Amino acid sequence: MHALDKWIKDNSISRKILASNLNISIASLSRYLSGDRIPKQEIMEKIISYTDGKINPTNFYIVKNNKNNNFSEYRKDHLLGIEDLKESEISSLLNRADDIIRENRIQPTVNQKYRGKTLVNLFFEDSTRTKTSFELAAKRLGIDVINMQIETSSIRKGESLLDTAMTLNAMQPDILVIRHSLSGTPHLLANKVNCGVINAGDGQHEHPTQALLDALAIRRRKKRIKGLKIAICGDIAHSRVARSNIKLLITMGATVNLIAPSTLMAEGLSDYGANIFNNFKEGLNEVDIVMILRLQKERMQGSYIPSAKEYFKFYGLDREKLSFAKSDALVMHPGPINRGVEIDSELADDINRTLILEQVELGVAIRMSVIEHLINNLEHKK
Questions:
Q1: pTM
Q2: What's the CA gap between 267 and 243, in Å, rounded?
């Protein structure tokens, strides 16, 4: 029994009364107690005050003692994509991320175990969430971070990507995180360097850590992935997020529906076992999770939709369209959001129906897990 639940029982009150006194919903309190959501600092202070200090961060958060987590299930030197991963390898990455979340909720500290290790961020495309998330993940592990400034690097002077990679390799980093507009670039570098390589997005191919954090968010809220029905909607043709998620979710036992106009639907995805829909209502029938994708205008050459207004009318998610799914269906979006184009602004801000902010939060934990796995695998080979 959770310490706060025990306190509630001992003091003969109910969760409903406590939630009212804390000025939060019963649903939010339940998520705090189950570990699905982190209480904000002001909520934690109210809990401490209301219980006269009997409930505090030390006994509020419960750390699962996972003595069996020796990173043995994921033995690869790199994370280049989801396609070749087994269910056990994916679970190993998700399980370690869960442990990291629990550990950091009790006492957020910088891990000194990996002190002296170095991670290099090499981003050839614009990024806010992913780049910052990798940097924060590395720093929480005590790893030194180098952010390569592409606009001022030797690449602008004509140096090839491989020359840059070999130069970085000579500096002996431990992890190289790369995002590039050309599909397959991380795989090319992985064959040329001695460190672990993490694919942070390559062209229209894959974005494995985004798929992993999406899976973590789903598993933490729904308690499972296997057996769920998940719809991925929007610009599937240009989305590396869609490709990684399709492969991961099907591997983990979910049913995946793809919903998009024919101009934005990629070919061959049914070969992975996904169901193809052009009609929003049909595709959302009995769905547990609705994952909305951004229109990748920077990758479009030509006209794929009549207009943003027309697109929202038929494929933008609002409460009316969400009603086609299950009553407790949750909404996800990898960001950045184009409000009023892919999703209604009011719905996007509804924390009871969306996992958007949780996706951002969990990104740090999943990337810490990936980095730990790769460093441990490389250490064992020395």
A1: 0.81
A2: 11
